Amino acid sequence: MTVINKPKTTVTPGSVSDKEILLRTLTQELDVTDVAPTGFAPSELIPSDLAAQMQQASMQASQLLKSLSHPDRLLLLCQLTQGEYCVGELESLVGVGQPSLSQQLGILRKDELVTTRREGKQIYYSIASDDALAVLQLLYQRFCGKTT
């Protein structure tokens, strides 16, 4: 744990109790790398709110990866990184037929990865998730941007 704008307190093993180390760690007065008390598991030093935040973040990341895991959805999102497209344009650009295209776009809407805009009879799609866009940019760099 890195502490900013607070003086760092260092202790030698045995000079303070395990409870004192935990209290100082939780109040950010002690860098946990400075002391390794006996019988103290590192997981005990993680505040419960941080653990809850990490659990929530892992659930969000897992849902995003689940949404991206279908090849047609991934292909649609990759195309949408280039801008906004209507359904007819997406159908011809990605080569996914209408029934499957509608189903996959519906899932992307439900997962809040895309947003829609209606203009007359046309529905236009664009990426709504900054997280999805960041992952797609990395995937493009790693898989599509390679030169052979």
Entry keywords:
51% helix; Arc Repressor Mutant, subunit A; disordered N terminus; mainly alpha; 3-stranded antiparallel sheet; globular; 3 strands; 148 residues; 6 helices; single chain
- The percent of residues in helical segments reads 40-55%
N-to-C SSE string, H for helix and E for strand: HHHEHHEEH
**N-to-C terminal Cα separation, in Å?**
43 Å
Outline the biggest β-sheet.
3 strands, antiparallel
The level 1 CATH classification of the largest domain is Mainly Alpha
Please state the overall shape, judged from the principal axes of the Cα atoms. globular
Taking Cα atoms only, what radius of gyration do you get, to the nearest Å? 24 Å
User: What's the total number of strands?
Assistant: 3
**Strands ordered across the widest β-sheet:** 1-3-2
CATH topology of the largest domain: Arc Repressor Mutant, subunit A
Strand content: 5-15%
Q: How many domains comprise the coordinates?
A: 2
From the 3D coordinates, which CATH architecture of the largest domain would you assign? Orthogonal Bundle
Individual helix count:
6
Task: Extract low-pLDDT stretches.
Answer: 1-9, 27-36
Name the CATH superfamily assignment of the largest domain. Answer: Winged helix-like DNA-binding domain superfamily/Winged helix DNA-binding domain
As an assembly, this protein is: single chain
The chain-level mean pLDDT equals 80
Classification by helices and strands: mainly alpha
